[in-house]
Amino acid sequence: MTFDPSFDTNPPAAPQPDPPPGAEAVTVVDMIPLDAVQIGLLLRDRARRLDDDLGDLKASIRDLGLSNPIRVQAIAQQRYELVQGWRRLSAFRALLAETGEARFARIPARLMPGGAALAVLYRQMVDENMVRKDISFAEMANLARGYVDQAELSGEDIDLDDAVNLLFASAGAQKRSYIRRFAWLLSRFDKHLEHPEAIPRALGMSLANRLDERPDLMPRLSRALQEAPGRSPEQELSILRQFADGSEGGAVALAPKPGRGRPAAPRARTRLHLMRDGEAVEVIATPGRVELHLARDLTTTDRARLRAAVAAFMDALDHAR
């Protein structure tokens, strides 16, 4: 997750805090092409959920322009990696697709020289998003988890505690402990949770503490979530509350689905992260389905090339048997 694909805001420009140690000077770039920006380096919101507020941002950009440029790092000649501004970039891409207007084909950006440390890039992304009053503990936890995953891909040795301490150094010790607990909770249930960003702090802490005391409840909670697909945030919170307060034997039904002799088995799921020619790729495989998450926009790829790539992928799978 989706920092969140939906984690950025477009606030008026404000004085920037002193950069963390090792940060490089920032140069203003007037405009850069949208197709020159990739978003593979920093792992953002894992759910990659749609941003319901993107329409407001698009309207603001269409009427008033972009007051706060995105921030990118140069990675090659005329190629850039996004550091801050996922929503702004997404809004420009959507406006270009909807209107075809040339003014949306390029976006104002601030350029960071290449070679900035991964920790510096994540700190800058986190610092920007921490100004949001509505940022959830699940989103903050996923930022820390994403940093650990990306650091592993880059050959760095860092654990979750280190990641939380580094990324949220400006937060109090109590808040950092909450983020760690949410990260622990999400590491066990993120494949089953549909609305983790809706979990309030108190509920997250109560649930994590109860599952610590009763680890035997974990598979039951997983099963209860699986048996309520397509649920609303309120319905998901209701399930979680019953496991947090000890009433999970009541309204949460763990009985077999109609026509089945036993509860459905947990859905198999495999997640992989890899780097290919400097591009980060996330692969999520479930029965009968494979998802590829990468920075490039495949909707602009020629259909014949895309068909050939899928055929080559299937051939490689068959030959690997």
Structure summarized in a few sentences:
The chain is α/β, with parallel strands linked by helices and 321 residues long. It has 10 helices and 8 strands. Among the domains are: 27-167, Alpha-Beta Complex (Conserved hypothetical protein from pyrococcus furiosus pfu- 392566-001, ParB domain), CATH 3.90.1530.10; 270-319, no CATH class.
Describe the structure.
The chain has 321 residues and is of the alpha/beta class. The protein has helices spanning 54-64, 86-99, 118-129, 137-153, 160-167, 173-189, 201-213, 217-226, 233-245, 303-319; strands at 27-33, 37-38, 70-76, 79-84, 106-112, 270-276, 279-286, 289-294. Among the domains are: 27-167, Conserved hypothetical protein from pyrococcus furiosus pfu- 392566-001, ParB domain; 270-319, no CATH class. The protein has ten helices and eight strands. The strands form two sheets. Strands 1-5-3-4-2 form a five-stranded mixed sheet. Strands 6-7-8 form a three-stranded antiparallel sheet, with no helix packed on it. It is globular.
Rg estimate, integer Å = 21 Å
- Helical amount among residues, as a percent range? 40-55%
CATH topology of the domain at 27-167: Conserved hypothetical protein from pyrococcus furiosus pfu- 392566-001, ParB domain
SSE pattern, N- to C-terminal: EEHEEHEHHHHHHHEEEH
Strand content: 15-25%
**Sheet with the most strands?**
5 strands, mixed
Spans where pLDDT lies below 50 across 5 or more residues: 1-26, 43-50, 251-267
End-to-end gap? 31 Å
Report the CATH C-level class of the domain at 27-167: Alpha Beta
Instruction: Using the 3D structure, state the CATH architecture of the domain at 27-167.
Output: Alpha-Beta Complex
Overall average pLDDT: 75
**Which class do the helix and strand fractions yield?**
alpha/beta
Annotation, overall tally of beta strands: 8
Shape: globular
**Strand arrangement in the largest pleated sheet:** 1-5-3-4-2
Task: Kindly report the name of the CATH homologous superfamily of the domain at 27-167.
Answer: Conserved hypothetical protein from pyrococcus furiosus pfu- 392566-001, ParB domain
Q: How many alpha or pi helices?
A: 10
